[in-house]
Write a structure and sequence with these properties.
Chain lengths: ~325, ~325
DNA sequence: TTGAAAGCGCTAACAG
DNA sequence: CTGTTAGCGCTTTCAA
């Protein structure tokens, strides 16, 4: 492992000069810079992140906290964020809660994140007041995806409007018995998104003069399996819905499966619409509300980089990305 | 940010004692340890990773290199690895190649990884001889998932056998015109897995006395979209296959879609089988060859941790995890 | 334009 | 059982 000293000795300059040369700072002659760079390549020199981190107090690392890496949505946001971070030479430290509340507490409760990263990106989590306090005390920029907190940058879609547009589509088709499959549970995650989508659903119904039926609100845990279970429950109802709005495509796909199991035709007997435009939605011909997922990651990364002074771009503090109704084959008029 | 000095002063001991106490080293009285720990909690002390990294030469971080985070398979392996790393107090640095060959070269070519992490996990990539040399020169443990290199720990399935079992199933059903959808392209990734699966496919055919037809080998890029395109091509053939073995479930799902588009019934007109037992496979009733994906991540993590001296477990150097034929509704006898 | 030197916060001998 | 001390490999004044 060649160190800056080796390199300095090799070139015959001081370590200070090497440091300046390699980081493109002024006050180094073009000629020396060239010699330093050449030698660095020749010796395969790579600066120690620990050493420069210790000296500068910055690690050139961003911590990304995600509820579940295995979910397409979060993986895609991570992908987007990674790309722009990498461009600026930042590394990405991944913290996967995997649905474990203890992990969440450990992570936010201790100053861990703050010590290890220059900035923190929190995905799909609405930090509690206490967590906000703890994160704030760390003094590092924090960016949010899918939630927002005063004074912090955030990226999200208008969940309320997205839900409304889906439900309004179903209403326009003539449906009145419309169910909602979402995540209302007390899982460690996703507390704000499902709530907003449910509110949008309820509001659209009320505006259309349709009385919401509590039996039509079912837990789907944001997974296909959860959607399947939810779909079964709904189809077992004495007077079941003619249409289902699922707060995510994965749940919608589960509902589709339940319909098939029950021998109901889609959209003849049951219309189904989701949210996301998940990779698989196309393959199920699923109607959905599309959102640009990797763009959310990219934007969030840009926001914190801006706060770190890494870019001159003006990145708005609170970004709300548009959604788009995508009609495919799973929605149609009721029988 | 309270430092070890602050803490030492607070408790009235030396920094050395604080360091020992907090790391659970011997040669500290239980009483002092308690006082140190209490004070640490009270002051919210968290050691600086940069400082201890610099002092020890170890960062308590593992770098994980993945071709595509957004693919379910890799996200799931990362999830598995993350869990066991976290247990031992290791952080995970994520490097997503996202299919960019330049990124791959930058990553392996410079000593970056080696400097930043105590160990490296490479997923779904068969390192070139040059890359092996470079990684080896870093002197850090390297673990592989989905490939293997002499002297390095690895976890994989027997791709050859997995493919054979799928194809033998199709043969047993009476199919003779069996196509292969895989990844044969020169993408930066997956060079070994698709090849092994294709070989298994060919061998199974030959053993059964079936002459392989080159027109039946189609590129699917390991994506649903690629599988769709592949399926279309196969179904357009004058004398198309009666069965398709896709090297991944995602491609198999694409083929299913192509069949539906073309009005072919599955498995009546076309049988389809994949590999993975992807989350979505159940929902498509897809026959497949199941592999335990997160277990691959867990095992790989354990292997490098063992090499780092973090565990007493005996972890075999080369692990081959079993696969299992899962028969659902997309395979049946030819018409 | 360059160099000397003092840290950054922690660990690891070595003494005591 | 505890403290002193010398680094780890960089960055950053301050001088030259």
């Amino acid at each position: 492992m060649t160190s800056i000293d080796d390199l300095a000795r090799e070139v015959g300059v001081s370590t200070a000069t090497v440091s300046r040369a390699l980081r493109g700072l002024p006050r180094v002659s073009e000629q020396t810079r060239q010699r330093v760079v050449d030698a660095a390549v020749r010796l395969g020199y790579v600066p120690s992140a620990s050493a420069s981190g210790l000296a500068t107090g910055r690690t050139r690392t961003v911590a990304v906290v995600v509820p579940f890496v295995t979910r397409w949505f979060f993986a895609t946001v991570v992908h987007g964020a990674e790309q722009v971070l990498r461009e600026r030479g930042y590394d990405l430290l991944l913290y996967n809660l995997a649905g474990d509340p203890a992990a969440r507490q450990r992570l936010f409760g201790t100053g861990l994140l703050t010590k290890r990263a220059d900035a923190i990106l929190v995905l799909g989590l609405a930090p509690t007041a206490e967590e906000v306090r703890q994160l704030r005390s760390g003094g590092r920029p924090v960016g949010l995806v899918g939630a927002s907190v005063d004074g912090w940058p955030s990226v999200q879609i208008d969940d309320h409007a997205a839900a409304r547009s889906a439900v309004e589509h179903l209403l326009a088709l003539g449906h009145r018995r419309i169910a909602y499959v979402g995540g209302l549970d007390d899982s460690p995650v996703d507390v704000v998104v499902p709530t907003a989508r449910r509110d949008g659903y309820l509001e659209a119904l009320l505006d259309a003069g349709v009385e919401p039926d509590p039996a039509y609100e079912v837990e789907g845990r944001f997974t296909m399996a959860g959607g399947l279970a939810a779909g079964r429950r709904l189809l077992d109802l004495p007077e079941g819905p003619t249409a289902v709005f699922a707060a995510s495509d994965e749940m919608a796909i589960g509902v589709l499966r339940a319909a098939r199991e029950a021998g109901r035709s889609v959209p003849g007997d049951l219309s189904v619409i989701g949210v996301d435009d998940h990779e698989t939605a196309l393959f199920f011909d699923l109607s959905t509300v599309r959102q640009r997922v990797d763009e959310q990651g990219r934007t969030a990364a840009r926001q914190v980089l801006a706060l770190l002074g890494e870019t001159d771009e003006l990145v708005p503090e609170r970004v709300v990305l548009p959604t788009e109704l995508v009609l495919r084959a799973t929605t149609g008029p009721p029988a």
